[in-house]
Amino acid sequence: MYKKRFFYTLFTELSHDTLNNSLARTAIVRIFFLLLCLGTFAFADTKKFMIDLKTGDFETFDKVILSGMPGTIDYFRGQGDTVEVAVVIHGDAYKFFVKNLENTQYGVDKSLVERQESIQKRLEEIEKKYQVHLEICMSGMHKKGILTEDIYPFVTPIKSAMVGLVKWQNEGYGYIPVH
Q: Quick check: 50 and 72 in contact, CB under 8 A?
């Protein structure tokens, strides 16, 4: 009832003199614009997806994580949607999230060592700009001899990949396997 009265007053009971007043016209235009914006945001959607990252292939990692994921987020944000993303890291993907390669089995991978600085920089940018949740499986880390202090500080260790996958899916995140 209040809404009806507000709009009735706004559009029908304003006197002709009030509408001629430029200050009143400006206020009415601003109120209309505000209502239009609020209506637009009320219809915005939240897109939630979780990437099950298991691959150790750099080309796939680069295409999906470093390029594809930001592009996808930008696309949906451009549509007015909110985007929430989680990445659960396990399998052969650990090597992309290790800061101290020399302390791990990955230190002998010359190609990875050469790319490490650019990978770290890009991951930091993605995590900061898009607030992506990066979670890494501690169970597999320990089996591979990777210590918590060997991973990037913006990556969160979790009990296991399975726990992370179940958690995010139960929170309504779409599942995207990258194996």
A: no
